[in-house]
Every structure is written in C-alpha cells, then in structure tokens.
C-alpha cells in the first residue's frame, strides 16, 4: 500500500476503514540466509538495504521487545554531517545524503526537517578549531558557514551573548543539519523491509549463537532455534552481552545518556543550537516541546534512566545559554544505553567467526547514522567487503592502532568519551 | 548513587571520578604480548549486573576505591581501598 495525499483524502472521506497493518507478524522460519539481531534503527535499515540494494530477501530481523523500542525511539533526533576526521567525514556525509532521499525512497514521512544546526564557540582558539572543522566539512562536499557574533544574534537572538564565563564569539552554521521524527525512521525502514519480504520477528530474544568449527550456524531464541548462513549483531548498548554469546569481548563500555523534553510551547527555537562547552544542545519538536540533552552520566550503566547530578548539570547549562527557557516546565526525562568505544567512533566489521558480523559502538551519535550504517552493514554482509564509506570502522583498530578516529582529541581510552 | 569511601564514609557520587572497570588490578606483565595488552587496555566484559570498577575520591581524601555494584539497579554492594584489593 503506497501512501499519497490522494490516499489520505480518500480514506478521510470513507471513514479511514481502508488502512492496513504496516507490517506482517510472521512466525520464524527454520532457516534464513541472513539473521539480523536487533530491530532498532540500524538493524531495520540493514534489512531494508539488504533487500533493496542486494536482492537478499530471505532475511529475519529478531527483536526481543518491539520494533524501534530502544535507542532509535529514545534519542534527541538530530541529523547532521559535521564530522572532522577522515573515516567519519565521508560516512556521515553519505548518511546525510541518504537522509535527504529517504522519505521519497521509503514512501514514508519521517518529518526530516533541515532547519540548520549552529555550534557555538566562545574563544579565539575555539573559533580557529571551528574554522578548521568547517573547512573539513566543505572539503567533504557538505555545507558549513562561519557566523560571527552578529550573525549568530540575527538567527538566535535569545541567547545570553554576554555570559561572563562563555560569551558568544560566533558559531559554525550547518544549514543541512536538522531533525527527524525518530520513531518514523524505524517504522519507515520496517515497512520497507517487510514489503520486500523480510520477516520482522518481535518478542524474540536471542539467547545463544550457534558456532561450529569457527563458522556461524544460527541462533537460539526464546521462540526456538533458527538456522542462518550469516548473522549480524546490531544491538547497540547490549552489544557486550550478545557478543559474549559468541565468546567475544568488545572494546565497548555501556553508559547512560539522558534526554529531556518540556511541555509544548509555541514556536520559539527554529534551529538546532549546540553549546559544546556546556555539553548542551536543544531543538524544538513539531509538537512544540523543547528537546534537549547533555553529556553521559559517565559511569558504566544499563539503567535506562539517568542520575540526578546530570539532570542538574543539563538544566544549569540550558539556563546559562538561554535564560528564557527557565519558565518552561520539563515534562519527561529518560535515558538510553550507549555503546561507547574508546575513541568515540563506531565499528562495522566481520568477526573472527566466519559468517558473524557486528555493527556497534555508535556512542551518543547513532541516530543520524541509521541510513548509512544500514547501507554499509548490508553491503558488508552481502558482499563480504566493507563499503567505501565505512572502511575505517574496523573492530581491531585499537589493537593495531591503525585509523583510530578520536574526534574529541582526548585519547582513545574508555573513560574519556 | 552514593558511594561509601572506606576512609571518609558515605559520600555523594559527584565527589568521585570514574576510571572504569577494575582491570587495572590485573595489569599484564610488560612482555605479556600485544593480545594481553589489547585485552587489558581496550576489551571489556561490560556486564549488565554485578561489576567491579575503580573510582577516585577526587573531591575527598584522594583514595582509589574498588566499588562492587550493579550496573542495572545502581545498588552498591561493597567498597574497598584499591591498595588492599590489589594485594
């Protein structure tokens, strides 16, 4: 069933009785060519691109809860391509291009809004760093515009420009950055994969990975054993547990990242504003809620809720940057479990077990990567070769020291990202 | 979350710096080889449940502390000075 304006009008006039469930609810088959563990954004996008780009449709996505119930439904919805280092740069650039064609491709409204992202700076040294980053973005073929103080003031006049500690010197403006409706991205990819024959199997937790003679043979699940020629692990914060089923230890520590939303307000924040020095960023959803977040709670945790010290810190940072939001009432806060790597960059690779692949380490930035991660992981699983845009995301880079991508420049060490 | 420093008593989490998994207590020999060092520096068990990690009482007495706690419930089971745990 295709969606169109005509269809909406027709259904509206006939009592909306013609809508069908968007995907099937199939029983697992005994065997698949490819099993994807994890029905989040990345897993669903992988299944979609396996079917669309590579014609591999005998695929199952196994999800222990419900589709899109993890981080893809818990993030702050930012989409951007403002990375600096080779390896990340081309990957996120590719991702943003996929975003720009996604809604048309999926025939699904993901409410992708390129409202522009502004990263603020507060010193001459920081300006230099942002000039360099902006040039890297332009070299990659993406867009970046350096704004001076007046340029920022023109766009976002409500900031505290003369803050004593962090006076605003200017900002790096990324016009193609913005937001998208996070749930819709998961649903759109799920629908697209289902339409191409992929089985989306919910309430099906993987409890073991069958390996014989170094070759993957399938998985054990709460709904029985399922054989497969290839298995992909795409489980974000739970990567450590699923990899352990295959006898692997990963360069990953799971941490909690919090997000917040206020009651619905009239439109006041038209862009995405990022205040790096306060680890604070904010946008306004189409419903009117101010959506904002901060930094990690900074100790290993699987509690999908946050701690109070970080709540206080985020609120303080928000008040420092834009005192006007002090009158807004926070409606909800929540936490997601982030798969943190030592250098803050992701992993899309084979493992030592033949036929077993892993896509993980998205740290606090997985949402914008959903399309390109699915695209690259599908390419790797279908062809056995890394996609050009993701060839530096190697699992063994910490052991070899080759192409470590530490965007923050703090060092490739677990507690620093 | 509150952590009991063996020297100062129960304190707010904000007084402590988090170092990570308590692998530092099992530092390999200098000549143990690249695999052992990769295991030690980068690879982690990353358990959902009971874990031991290292915290530094930065805003207090400056002690390094091994904290045994639960990563799902945030319950702290026990704390011990790292110098004792390492023995």
UniProtKB/TrEMBL annotation, chain A:
NCBIfam families: soxB. Its cofactor is FAD; FMN. Its main location: cytoplasm. This is Sarcosine oxidase subunit beta. Residues 34-78 form the Rhodanese domain. Its EC number is 1.5.3.24. It is found in: Cytoplasm. Keywords: Cytoplasm, FAD, Flavoprotein, FMN, Nucleotide-binding, Oxidoreductase. The keyword Lipid metabolism does not apply. InterPro entries: FAD-dep_OxRdtase, FAD/NAD-bd_sf, Rhodanese-like_dom, SoxB. It catalyses: sarcosine + O2 + H2O = formaldehyde + glycine + H2O2; sarcosine + (6S)-5,6,7,8-tetrahydrofolate + O2 = (6R)-5,10-methylene-5,6,7,8-tetrahydrofolate + glycine + H2O2. Belongs to the SoxB family. It is an enzyme of class 1 (oxidoreductase). It holds the Pfam family DAO. It comes from Parasulfitobacter algicola.
UniProtKB/TrEMBL annotation, chain B:
It comes from the Bacteria. InterPro entries: SoxD (IPR006279), SoxD_sf (IPR038561). It holds the Pfam family SoxD. This is Sarcosine oxidase subunit delta. It comes from Parasulfitobacter algicola.
């Amino acid at each position: 069933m295709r969606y169109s304006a005509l269809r909406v009008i027709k259904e509206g006039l006939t009592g909306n009785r013609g809508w069908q469930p968007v995907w099937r609810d199939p029983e697992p088959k005994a065997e698949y060519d490819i099993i994807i563990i994890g029905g989040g954004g990345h897993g669903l996008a992988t299944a979609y691109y396996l079917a669309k780009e590579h014609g591999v449709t005998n695929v199952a996505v196994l999800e222990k809860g419900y589709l899109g119930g993890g981080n893809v439904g818990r993030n702050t919805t930012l989409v951007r391509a403002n990375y600096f280092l080779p390896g990340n740069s081309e990957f996120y650039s590719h991702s943003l291009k996929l975003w720009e064609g996604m809604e048309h491709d999926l025939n699904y409204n993901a409410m992708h809004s390129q409202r522009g992202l502004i990263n603020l700076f507060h010193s001459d040294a920081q300006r230099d760093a942002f000039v360099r980053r902006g040039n890297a973005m332009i070299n990659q073929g993406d867009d970046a515009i350096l704004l001076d103080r007046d340029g920022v003031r023109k766009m976002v006049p409500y900031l505290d420009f003369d803050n004593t500690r962090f006076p605003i010197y200017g900002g790096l403006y990324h016009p193609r950055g913005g937001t998208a409706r996070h749930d819709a991205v998961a649903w759109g990819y799920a629908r697209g994969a289902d339409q191409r024959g992929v089985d989306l199997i919910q309430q099906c937790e993987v409890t073991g990975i069958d390996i014989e003679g170094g070759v993957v043979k399938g998985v054990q699940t709460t709904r029985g054993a399922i054989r497969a020629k290839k298995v992909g692990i795409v489980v974000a914060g739970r990567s450590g547990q699923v990899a352990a089923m295959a006898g692997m230890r990963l360069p990953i520590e799971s941490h909690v990242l919090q997000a917040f939303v206020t009651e619905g307000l009239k439109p006041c924040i038209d862009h995405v504003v990022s205040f790096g020095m306060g680890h604070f960023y904010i946008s306004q959803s189409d419903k009117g809620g101010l959506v904002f977040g901060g930094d990690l709670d900074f100790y290993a945790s699987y509690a999908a809720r946050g701690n109070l010290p970080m709540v206080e810190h985020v609120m303080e940072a928000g008040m420092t940057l834009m005192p006007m939001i002090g009158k807004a009432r926070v409606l909800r806060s929540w936490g997601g479990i982030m798969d943190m790597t030592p250098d803050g960059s992701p992993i899309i690779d084979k493992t030592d077990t033949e036929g077993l692949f892993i896509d993980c380490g998205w740290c606090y930035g997985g949402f914008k990567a959903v399309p390109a991660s699915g695209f690259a992981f599908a390419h790797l699983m279908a062809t056995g070769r890394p996609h050009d845009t993701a060839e530096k995301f190697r699992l063994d880079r910490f052991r070899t020291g080759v192409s470590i991508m530490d965007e923050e420049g703090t060092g490739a060490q677990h507690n620093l990202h | 979350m509150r952590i009991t420093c063996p020297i100062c008593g129960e304190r707010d989490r904000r007084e402590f710096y988090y170092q990570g998994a308590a692998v530092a207590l099992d530092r390999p020999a200098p000549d143990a080889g690249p695999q052992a060092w990769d295991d030690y520096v980068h690879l982690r068990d990353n358990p959902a449940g009971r874990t031991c990690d290292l915290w530094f009482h930065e805003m207090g007495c400056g002690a390094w502390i091994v904290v045994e706690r639960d990563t799902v419930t945030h319950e702290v089971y026990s704390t011990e000075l790292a110098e004792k745990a390492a023995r």
